[in-house]
């Protein structure tokens, strides 16, 4: 059990701040887990690829989603 709830909210607040900062970068930034699956990427990745995080989450880094219909 968490005894000091303020520490929990402090960490949560910092996490949201870091996430917001990274999401606004104009550089591609993604997080891949130890199995090689994409678990998070920023808006620059979405712009460059045309895919949302929801579309690629759990995709292996070295594979890609199905091609989009034109």
Could you describe the 3D structure shown?
The chain is mainly α. It is 43% helix and 10% strand. The protein has helices at residues 5-23, 43-49, 53-56, and strands at residues 30-32, 38-41. A two-stranded antiparallel ribbon has the order 1-2. Strand 1 (30-32) and strand 2 (38-41) form a beta hairpin. The chain is elongated, with a radius of gyration of 15 Å.
Instruction: Note poorly predicted spans.
Output: none
Global geometry = elongated
Number of strands: 2
Helix share, percent: 40-55%
Q: Can you summarize the main beta sheet?
A: 2 strands, antiparallel
Keywords:
70 residues; mainly alpha; 3 helices
Question: What's the SSE blueprint?
Answer:
Elements: H1 5-23, E1 30-32, E2 38-41, H2 43-49, H3 53-56
Antiparallel strand pairs: 1-2
What's a quick, concise take on this entry?
This protein is mainly alpha-helical and 70 residues long.
């Amino acid at each position: 059990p968490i005894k000091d709830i303020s520490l929990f909210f402090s960490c949560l607040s910092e996490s949201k701040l870091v996430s917001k900062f990274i999401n606004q970068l104009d550089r591609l930034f993604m997080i891949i887990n130890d199995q090689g699956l994409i678990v998070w990427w920023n808006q620059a990745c979405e712009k460059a690829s045309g895919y949302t995080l929801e579309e690629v989450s759990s995709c292996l880094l070295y594979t890609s989603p199905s091609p989009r219909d034109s």
